[in-house]
Specification:
single chain; 302 residues; Archaeosine Trna-guanine Transglycosylase, Chain: A, domain 4; 3 domains; four-stranded mixed beta sheet
Length: 302
Amino acid sequence: MGRRGTSGRNVQGILLLDKPLGDTSNAALQKVKRIYSARKAGHTGSLDPLAEGLLPICFGAATKISAFLLDADKRYRVQVKLGETTTTGDAEGTIIKTASTAGITESDIRGVLEKFIGEIQQIPPMYSALKHKGERLYKLARDGVEVEREPRTIMIHKLELLACRVPVFELDVSCSKGTYVRTLAEDIGGVLGCGAHVCALQRTGVGPFSADQMISMDQLNAALVQGREALEALLLPMERALNDLPAVKLNSDSTYYMKQGQPVVVPNAPTVGRVRLYDNKELFFGVGEILDDGRVAPKRLM
């Protein structure tokens, strides 16, 4: 997340940035923050410099709900090359192992993909931002240090083969948070017996947001020339990040008690999970959670 600054405009909302290839997520965030002259902004889940695509940028109060986008399911379009294993699991790394892909067919690849659909275990890569004893794993990896990582349970909702011309194939991946697509590619290559790495990666979905809603840096710069109104028009209301949650509307009494941090009874509310909260004036004001006794409790208020 970006740090709160003492200067800048009080910008509110979410920008669905199409992060350019080669930029770190933080570099892209800082460019966007400067364009908007925004006081407060943060991104919702890093993309590697090699990756491009959907990077939601939250401004102002929207940073309070960024955690819900971090926890949301993601979608990727990924190009995988068989027969080459690299230090980083992608094309940025050094090739450390090669193997023949002769005899591997599209049918073989389809058969292996089926093994990775559903709940699976995945060991996070050394080249990741996870920490070991306070140190980022990628920093240790650059120093030639490898540490043991615990497997994690992730969910692969969909794994569709879009194109195949061995040794390269392309996938549409829908997955849970915490999934490393580089590791997925390596593991598929491992089962096929030849190794693999990611040679191109685009994030096409985050929670309720999809690639067709993205705004490019060119569009942003064009809007900057047109002025503040054109820039503001590119922002989405913060509650759009929660569109996959059911809405609960409160009366004036329930609104009062909820804003005091107290659970309330809401007729016909959902029986489980999280909800979007709207006050008695139908204004969005946060996220609630359904308790075991059916009451709605505040989870994150704006």
